[in-house]
Each structure stands twice: as C-alpha cells, then as structure tokens.
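pasting for ref
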Amino acid sequence: MKIEVYETSSAGNHLAIITEFPQKNSENNISLHPEETFQEILGFGGSFTEASGYLLNQLSQENRTKILEAYFSENGANYSLTRTHINSCDFSLSQYAYSDDPDDFQLEKFSIEPDRDDIIPMILEAKAISPQGFKIISSPWTAPPYMKDNNNWVGGKLIPEYYDSWALYFAKYIQAYQTEGIDIWGITLENEPLGNSNNWESMHYTAQEMTDFVKKYLGPKMEYEGLENVKILGYDQNRDELKKWVDVMYADKASSKYIDGTAIHWYASTFEVFPEALQYAHQKAHDDYLIQTEACIDAQVPVWHDDAWYWKKEATDWGWTWASEDKKYLHPKYVPVYRYAIDIIGCLNNWVNGWIDWNMVLDKQGGPNWFENWCIAPVIVDPEKNEVYFTPLYYTMVHFSKFIRPGAKRIGWKSTDATLLVTAVQNPDGSFVVVLLNQEKEAKNFNLQLENFTKTIAIDGEALQTIVLNPN
C-alpha cells in the first residue's frame, strides 16, 4: 500500500509532504469502510468573475499564467467545477446585460460582447491548461432591468410578459458560449432569489415562482433548443431556507421534471454547516445534485502577505450586519482556514456533490467591485507592482480539489477522536483519500486503518491534512 501525506498548518506548512511517521501505535483510530458508499463527487473549484479576469489582464503574462496554472494544472489545484455570472454582478467593473431593447422579445440583438475582454479569455486559457477539463455553472444576478417590474438592476421581479424572453435568454447565452468554444454544464435560475437587502444586482423569486418558471418556460425552452443536457439547478442561496425551497421544487413529478438539483451558499452562518437541511434536501430530491455554488470571506479587506492572520479568529462577515437579533449568534468571528475546511468536510459528509469558491483572484482592496463589497479570494494580487500572494485559503482548496477527483465516491469511516474532523472518498482510479482538520493546538497521532493495512500518522496542531492511499 503506497501512502502519501500532505499538510498545511499554522506553523507554516504549505502542502508539505510528510515522510516521517510515529513508530508507536496511537490510542486513536480512524478506520475506512469502502463498502459503505454515498454520493458521487463532481468536483471543487472557483468562479470566473469579470473582476478576476480583469486583474489577470493587468498582470504580466508570467504571473497570469502562474495563477491559472496554480488553479487548473495537474501540478496545481486541478479545479474541476467552476461558476461564472450571466450579465453583471457586484464583482463586475460596471452593470451590464446582453440585451437592452425592451421590444426585442426574440433577442435578435443579444450579444455577449461585454464578456469578451475578461471572462471569456480567462476561461479559454484555463481550458488550455486543464488536463481533464472542468464543468461550468452559470448564474444570473438579474435579468435586464427592462424585463423587471421596477426597471432597476437591484431587486424587483420578472414581468410576466418577459417570461418567455428570459427563458430564451438562457438558451442564447449557452449557445453564444458554445460558439466561443466554451460548454456550459449547468445553470442556476437566480443568484440569491431571496435578495441581498437591495445592495447589488438581484431579482426576487418565491420558491413557487421559480419552480413554475422552470416548469412552464425554461425547461420546455431548453428542450426545444436542444439544450436538455444542460443541468438546471434551483434555489442558489443559504442553507437556512433550504428545506422550504426543496419542498416546493420537489412537491411532485411535474414540479421537478426539469430540475436537476439544488444550489446552495454558506452565508447563513460562519460555523454552522446545517447538516439536517442538507440531509433533508438529499432525501427530498431523490439523489439529484446538491452543489455548494458560492462561498467567500466577505465584508473583509484582504490581509496581504500575512499567513498568520488566516489562522486567527478575526474574520468577519456580512451576516452579522443583516441577521436578525435572534440569529446573530450564527455569525461570530472565525478562523478563515477553519471555516473553509469545516464547511467542505461538512458538506461532503452530508451528500453535497461539489463545492465552488467565489472569486479566484482579487486585489489588495478586495475588489474590483462596483458596490465596494470587499471580499477575500484565495489569490490576492497587486497589479501596480505585478505581485501575487497565494493565501492559506488557496492551499486549503488544493487539499480537496487536487486529490478528490470527479467521479469519486464518498465512503464510510469511523474515528475514535471526535475533535478531528474527517471525510473520506474513493477515487475512480481506486485510490483512497482522507482529509482531516485538527483545530487543537497540540499535534495528534492516529492509526489509519483500511482492511488489513494500518499506518500510524501524526497531524500537527492547527493543521489540515490530506492522505492518499493507493493499493495499486
């Protein structure tokens, strides 16, 4: 049995290869049970935003390539599941849509020209680097203002007379991207349909309105246009409301006929994974996809070249501001690395098929963002000085994306140490991958067991570890 151990820690390890192992057995045991199988994994990755594409264009070709290879090459994170935005979002340079003529119901003037400078070149270059390719999920933040009852980029609802045009809009977008050599794997109906307190691009749906739009307009339109293989994901917001939405989406066969799964975000809490809601959605949705489509360290200007900060309990989030008093307890300060690792492990252990980070690249201010909604990305750049900083969040993502490959199956495991967070999968090539998080300050030893094989391993204090077992 070949074993490889990689570790990232507050002590300074960045995917360090661990080659020294304890000589004595530990009292703690982690056993793998490949006979117990759960969901299939689609992959992990980040998002192609106009902000990220724009910043890459400001860097030298050497640094641009360095970043994209770090994300998409086999030697890097090897991202396999990504997202992008339809029309503008807050992480755009300005507000735009692909249509601006209220009388053009058939969208004959539809054009993805706004994406040609930044988003499309970034995707195409990533495609050229990626050895196995990656899936793309596209999400609109809003329809063009003229299609909405408030004629505004922010808030409002789709006007019924534009239902058919908005369904056609998705098809036109997918076809236009196909012409550019980019296949769209899936779409979500609306980023955050419950709204965002009227801050940036948004459009509101109730669960019933979204479900009816898919059933009566979008699903049939995609079928008519020959795009029935493109996945349609409902909801696309926080897990605290997930049960209500899947109840409506999966009320009966008619309501769920065209729905392929549910998209979720993590912003309802800085520590709670909402396992009961995820389990409920899985049971309700008859094994349809459950995909985490957005997460980031928000309401925070990036900390530049200070790895230690990303291991400290000092990060904040927007949730503290918008949460009602009875829910503010869900939004305490947190350790950025832990929040990422806890959430990914928790999602995997509760039927989630894929996990997508938000912006791949941001600047030292946490933008560009036309609303000044500053956030942190795993890679931060200073375009004026042509400098790049790979934060510990980048290495955190790599612990999952590089080693857990598309088509992997989550498998059963048991641990005698409740303080270690654990998840495990078996890859299509037969290898087993175990990811562990130790939040304690002290190092821990444990015996890793797979059938007749046992190996005693040590994980440092405040560390994330990936173990690859290859029986071949």
